[in-house]
């Protein structure tokens, strides 16, 4: 089953094959970088609270949803159903869009930081922006390959 999933076939991997097939291998990196964004946003001071709230929502939502999907794939809950391929493509497309919007807003908030913020707070926000864009890239890549898998199913 792993070679079909790796080559864009319609089968979703199960068990530990999730950790060896592409694009499902990206779950691990999405988990790590999404967690870093969550931590950095939670500890940083953003001048516009609404932006911080949206970025926090996106990072927590995607972290939890990615974790749940990874666990469900590892226990084989999909049972080979093609509807799970659709779910995978839809989720990663929405997550990519959410992370792109959160990354742009966080970058805007960091650029507009005025006086009253320390050098450390500014660097925390820069780190959050960088990791947010890395997470965006991971979700976009996963979405593209999930859409290819969906189209071939």
Automatic annotation (TrEMBL):
It comes from Orycteropus afer afer. The keyword Transmembrane applies. The keyword Iron does not apply. GO terms for biological process: myelination. Belongs to the MAL family. It is found in: Membrane. GO terms for cellular component: membrane. Its main location: membrane. InterPro entries: MAL (IPR013295), Marvel (IPR008253), MARVEL-CKLF_proteins (IPR050578). This is Myelin and lymphocyte protein. Keywords: Lipoprotein, Membrane, Transmembrane, Transmembrane helix. PANTHER family: MARVEL-CONTAINING POTENTIAL LIPID RAFT-ASSOCIATED PROTEIN (PTHR22776), MYELIN AND LYMPHOCYTE PROTEIN (PTHR22776:SF12).
